[in-house]
Amino acid sequence: MMDEDMDSTVERCAALLISDDADQVQSAVNLLKSVYASGDGGVDTFATIVQEIAECQGGSVLWQLLLLTLGQSYAEVLEKGFNHFHSSTLALALLTSSKVVVESYLREGFGTDEKENAREILTRLVRQTVGIARMQFQENKVSRAFGTLVIVPSLECLANFARRSKVFRDAIKECAENGSIFDQYKTLLSAETLAAVSPASQTVRVRFHLASIAVSLAFSADSQMWAIDMGLLKLLAAIYEATPLRELSKRSKRHKSPAFRCNKILLRLLDSDATAEKLLAHNALSGFRPHRRKINGAEPEFVAWAFYQRRFQGEKIPIGTVMSAEDWKLAEQAWNGDLQVPVMCSWRLCAAEREPVVGKGFSKCGRCHTARYCSKEHQKLHWRTHKVHCEANQATAKEGVSVEPGASN
């Protein structure tokens, strides 16, 4: 995409995302999706556009989108119109596929620091998933279509934050310590809940996003151990339980299969003696044996259960190819989330372009902390166009806005 076209697309998307017209917001969503799926270079172009939207007006576009989604109460959503809220939540799910956007929200969110922002965003996303499900399926306060259209993109947002941020995973740990978040999300996988999801095709999306959250926790060294202790294995078992056997026969869709991703989680946890011992202590053999047909069905050529069973029993057998920490990090990128969005050097003419998945990452602009650079030289070259947004006062975007804690009730 030429620079002029890129500028036009960024400006157009930024304006559409904060429009009062639901159709305009949906147009931004459709445009971003089309860029991502546009073939060679589409993913990198998408990543660049999203990062530049994050820089726009000192972050005010991101902030306004956050207010339109996690900053509203259920009553406000009904008053202002559901379509706008739904389109805005879809947009939030798209933008948070970028690590740059996630870090921006944790730096400039509802609280005073990253930890408080993470806790508040998690609380609001839990209410927009488990809370809405409870209202929908137990109290009959919302329609099936409304509940599903809120829950699925909100789950995707939660999965994106868990994937991109240790601070957010720590917030999940804190939430789990106060009452198992895994038990709460298991309720989304109950037969009664899934039967009420409308349209029924969205049930796989619920399982997919829950599996993505599980991938983030299981593949990250900072969360593996506590996640096992706090119910991760029960969540995996619930995903297997809710997966129809017929779904596993579609080999072309295996990469997006929740059960396939659960298999990869087990493989990751069994690769380390420390986590394998945890699985043994939690009697993983008993917990997963009822699901052995689905475990095998997710990877029929490998007869995965035979290996898992022996490892669950404590046998020291190799998993096959020896995987380094870097290998597992690359594997996580392939098996996690819906969109694979890299971090790009903010200077568009950069030849390196993508930040390495492993190794030294890009530096950040010392003022806005949003723009990313592979070198000081590229930071200097980018300053001419970046300074307008960098020098924008982010406080101005929040001026006159008051958001009560837990506003998404």
Automatic annotation (TrEMBL):
Q: Which UniProt keywords apply?
A: Metal-binding, Zinc, Zinc-finger
- GO molecular function list: zinc ion binding
| Location of the MYND-type domain | 350-390
> Zinc-finger as a keyword?
yes
Q: Does the keyword Calcium apply?
A: no
Which PROSITE patterns does the record match to this protein? ZF_MYND_2
What SUPFAM superfamilies does the annotation carry? HIT/MYND zinc finger-like
**InterPro entries the UniProt entry points to:** Znf_MYND
Q: What is the top-level taxon of the source organism? A: Eukaryota
Name this protein carries in UniProt: MYND-type domain-containing protein
- The protein's organism comes out as Klebsormidium nitens (Green alga)
